[in-house]
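Hi F.,

I've been meaning to write this up properly since the lab meeting, where we talked about keeping a consistent format for the predictions we share between groups. The idea is simple: the sequence comes first, exactly as it goes in, then the structure tokens exactly as they come out, then a line or two of notes. No screenshots and no reformatting. I'm using this chain as the first example so we have something concrete to point to.
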Amino acid sequence: MTDRLIPDVDPNWFWYVDNDKASLYVNLGQLGKVQTSVTTKLLCDKAFESRNFSVEDTRLYNLFLEKLERSELWAEQNFVFALIFNAIACSQFHKEIKSKNWYYLDNPLPQNTELLMRIKSKYAETQVMILAQEKAYVTVVLLSSLLLDETKTLPQFSLQKLSVEKLFAF
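Output, unedited:
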């Protein structure tokens, strides 16, 4: 494998909330820090305590890294790096969310769920990374912002829950 911009997990990494910026961060030691898309109003209670990068965080990091190395996104490693940390932050620290299926178009052709898929609103579409699947629903992170209607846009790396019928092939 060639050198990569994405570092190996370091035991000194830790999560913390920056109250001034109202956001969750991961401190990567000498590599700096990454601000996630998870704002304080979206955080579950456990996120407000600073904590080390856990075994579960490391498992998710390696899982996402392994799958994304084989994807077309790998060409943009800085983006992949941000995506992985946002995906971990969403899966570990985001409050429970409810599905909002009415925003998304149905796919008339059933799809096998893969790590990377697409979703479509009436106004736009975006690629998503699946974090979890629970029976007929998936939890996804948006790879780019998505226009839902004339006034509402979801930001990049936001978390959504929707039915699998809303997924399209990547």
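Notes:
The chain has a mean pLDDT of 91.
The longest helix spans residues 77-93.

If this format works for you, I'll send the rest the same way.

G.
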